[in-house]
Amino acid sequence: MNNTLQSHSSNIDNDECSLTDTQILALCKEFASITNTDTTLAKMILQENQWNLERAVSIYFDLLIDEKKSSIKEINNQYQNSELNIKSIIPHIELSNIKKNFKLLSWNIDGLDEYALEIRTQGVIDIIKKEEPDVIFLQEVIPTSLKLIRIFLPEYDSYTGNIEGYFVVILTRREMFRIHGFEIIAYPNTNMNRNLLIVHTTYKNSIEIDLMTSHHESGTEELSSQQRIEQLKLCFQRMLDAPLQRIVLFGGDLNMREKELRKIGNIPSGICDLWIETGKRNECAYTWDMSVNTNNNFPSNTFQPRARFDRLYFRSTIETNIKFQPISFELKGLEKLSSIQRYCSDHWAIQVNFEI
Question: I want to staple 138 with a disulfide (CB 3.0 to 4.6 A). Which of 42, 169, 197, 281 is the partner?
């Protein structure tokens, strides 16, 4: 949050008269921009919340969640005994015939940072809506963020590694996928309740794909490093064990150190690192970069770490008639949210495009 808005949020709770018309208008515009509403509604909600922007935004989204839940319940009650199926009314084959590329996005959205969580989650949602990936891997999601994601991204189905604390999520675009099931594999000896989430799918009614995401053990301690090694080995083995006619996509915030990859003998044959496969562009080399990302407030006169913690791996299919070729790798979430002057997360999103 910029200094002006920060002072508004903290100092004017009981003193509306301390605001000038210009300051009130600025707050209303910020609220309207964040919530995609108008300044009339913004002024009403801000006034009811003593012009505290963050509180007003949070309450607005809470009200919206309640309203959406009520609407969904009403629709479900109306049609629960009906033979109508929306998939039969709006067949996905039309979109399937048009699409010539496949897009996968992975992002640790930093749900453990409570600061402006709803605003940052809405920023994540806005980027997803703009990019329109077919599949999304999310890590460090908490229930509050998951509710917003499910409400504002209704075109996706969601699968979670847990429902409490923080967890991983896979989103699949509903009209493009048929889902056969999912698995949650707990990691032995994890101290952080980490696991591997796998969703078994068919894409465009013809391409079988296993989707796998995880958030590997955090920390610099030797014990954490050893756990990451074991977790990575398990994930690579699951990729190799998948039926050969299936494509396998795996990734997430793996907290990867290169020495750990070397200890397991590097990437197994038949699996590729998609950043390397698409040309190792230097501008995409760091997905957690404290020399640029200021969310964690590393002082400028101290060491500012950066790393490629977030990775995506690919195992192709033996089916020769299926084209699924990685063509580009990019970072997303590189812009600060103007209303709070922070990034959506302390991690950048990573996104890969495939030609199909």
Answer: 169
Largest CA distance in the chain: 71
DSSP conformation class of 225? H
Question: Per-residue pLDDT tens for 214-260?
Answer: 999 999 999 999 999 999 999 999 999 999 999 999 999 999 999 99
DSSP letter string, 24-60: HHHHHHHHHHHHT--HHHHHHHHHHTTT-HHHHHHHH
Q: Which residues are catalytic?
A: 253
Q: Is the CATH number 1.10.8 carried by domain 21-76?
A: yes
Q: Do 137 and 131 contact (CB within 8 A), yes or no?
A: no
CATH T-level topology, domain 101-355:
Deoxyribonuclease I; Chain A (3.60.10)
Residue 151 confidence class, pLDDT cut points 50, 70, 90: very high
Residue type (1 letter), 105: L
Q: In the chain, where are the structural domains located?
A: 21-76, 101-355
